[in-house]
Amino acid sequence: MSRSSNGQQQRRDSSHSTITMARRQHVTLTIALALVLFFSISYFFSGRTVSARDAAGLTTGATRPAPEKPLQDGHDAGSKSEFTVDLDEVPGSLLEGDSIAPKLENATLKAELGRTTWKFLHTMVARFPEKPTSDERKTLDTFFRLFGRLYPCGDCARHFRDLLAEYPPQTSSRNSAAGWLCFTHNMVNERLKKPVFDCTKIGDFYDCGCGDDKKGKDKAGHKEEGKREHGDGGDGADGVKGTEGTRT
C-alpha cells in the first residue's frame, strides 16, 4: 500500500516537472520571438525613416534649381567692352564699299538733310586740332570714308565717295581740313548750280560759338550777312542736298 502510494506520488511529481519545464520553454520561446519581432519592427521603421529622408533629399535636390551666378554690372569700374576697333586692322572693303542707305527721293528732305549735315561737318573740322596727332589724323580720314558709306542718302553718299577718291581728305592741320572741306562743298555746289563759298570766310559762316563772347558778338553780323549772301535756306547753297543727290 505504501509502495503503491509512493509510486503514484513519484509519477505525479515527474508529470508536474515535465509540465513545468514545458511551460518554461514556451515562455522562453515566446520572449525570444517577442524580442526578435520587436527588433525587426524597430529596424523596419528606422530603415523607412532613413529612406524617406534620403528620398526627400534627392527630390529636393532634383527640383531645386542650381544656384545662379551673381549678375555682374556691365558698368563696373573693372568691366571693359568686348567690342574694340583697331583702325590699323580695318579692312579696305569696309572703308570703300557701296552706300548702305537707299536713294532718298524726297527733294525737300534731301535739301534739309544736306544743310544740317554741312553745318555739322564744317563745325567738326573747325574744332579739329591745329597740330593733330597721327591717331587724330587717321580718325578724321576714317570718319569721312565711313561717312561716304553711311550717309542716309544713298546716291548722295555715292557722289561724295567719288569726290573722296579724287580729292582725299586733308588732315595735317585744322586749316588744311577746313580748306579741303570747303573745296569739296564748292564742288558739290557747282554740280548743283549753287553759289560757291569764299573759303577765306568759311570760319565766320560756320562759327560754332566756341570762341570768346566778344569775338562771337563781332562775328554775329558777318555770319547773318554771309547766310543771306549764300542762300542758307530753301534748297540752300550749303545744303549738300539739292534737287540732285548731293554730297555728304
From TrEMBL:
EC numbers for this chain: 1.8.3.2
Region (Disordered) location: 59-80, 211-248
Listed GO CC annotations: mitochondrion
Swiss-Prot/TrEMBL keywords: Disulfide bond, FAD, Flavoprotein, Membrane, Oxidoreductase, Transmembrane, Transmembrane helix
Top-level taxon in the UniProt lineage: Eukaryota
Domain ERV/ALR sulfhydryl oxidase: 106-206
Pfam families: Evr1_Alr
InterPro entries in the record: ALR/ERV, ERV/ALR_sulphydryl_oxid_sf, ERV/ALR_sulphydryl_oxidase
Residue spans crossing the bilayer: 27-45
Biased composition (Basic and acidic residues): 66-79, 211-233
UniProt key word Flavoprotein: yes
Cofactor section: FAD
SUPFAM superfamilies (UniProt xref): FAD-dependent thiol oxidase
Substrates-to-products reaction catalysed: 2 R'C(R)SH + O2 = R'C(R)S-S(R)CR' + H2O2
Molecular function GO labels: flavin adenine dinucleotide binding; flavin-dependent sulfhydryl oxidase activity
Keyword Transport: no
Name recorded for this polypeptide: Sulfhydryl oxidase
